[in-house]
Amino acid sequence: MKCRIREIREKKGISIGKLARMTGLTGGSISLIERGFRNPNMSTILKIRDALGVPIDELFTEDENEHIGKNRRNCCGDCKSTGRDAETIGG
Residue 56 in 3-state DSSP? Predict the structure, then answer.
């Protein structure tokens, strides 16, 4: 999910700090969620959804399996942008 949150936030021109203020979360928490180091609970997901003004299904990638085996630390919203494909990374 984190890849879509960052992508949507950046498309809307919202900084991490502004999203933090809009949701009542910390900027650090949002950063961790976006980078895949923290899994948000439903309450947090709903706060982010409301702040970004998108349907909840837009916060998720079309295919959650696209991230399996990838180096999530390098993901920037479009895993193809890392220059590596799933066969190379995930085997």
Answer: helix
Instruction: Say if residue 81's pLDDT is above 50.
Output: no
Confidence at residue 50, expressed as pLDDT on a 0 to 100 scale: 97
Provide the strand spans (E) within 12-87: none
Domain count along the chain: 1
Q: Please give the C-alpha separations between residue 64 and each of 1, 2, 3, 69, in angstroms, as whole numbers.
A: 8, 11, 10, 11
CATH classification of the domain holding 81? 1.10.260.40
Q: Does the pLDDT value for residue 38 go beyond 70? A: yes
CA-to-CA separations, 76 to 13, 43, 70, in angstroms, rounded: 16, 24, 12
Taking residues 11-31, report their average pLDDT.
97
SS3 3: helix
Q: Which of 83, 65, 87, 61 is nearest to 74 (CA)?
A: 83
**Domain of 81, in residue numbers:** 2-90
